[in-house]
Amino acid sequence: MVKACMRELKEYFAGQRQRFDLPFHLKAPASSKRSGSSSSRFLTGRPRSYQQLAEMTGDKNASRAIGLANNCNPILILIPCHRVIGADGSLTGYAAGLAAKKLLLDLEKGGTKK
After folding, report:
1. Which of 15, 71, 80, 105 is the most buried (most CB within 10 A)?
2. Predicted confidence (pLDDT) per residue in 10-47, tens digit
3. Measured distance CA(70)–CA(83) in Å, rounded
């Protein structure tokens, strides 16, 4: 599992991978799991607002739950919460810092598809 994770991360940072195939199980409330799993469905390099992600879950009022789920995300790159932005397109909070968020989004803009 560790080797597979290292391989997939290496491919991601080389611009050769858009999403991760690693199996993982998060211990979180159902609403957080639903919100987090929606984050992982994003297309690489295609940021979405909290509101857009809430609508993807089928609950247009879930923006706050999305923010809380992202805030508790223990695997920042594997569940790509860096792709969640403000409704006005601004970069919003990220546990690793806004500079890291911008770096990941810029990397994904130049990445290739898996």
Report:
1. 80
2. 999 998 888 888 887 777 555 444 544 555 555 555 88
3. 10
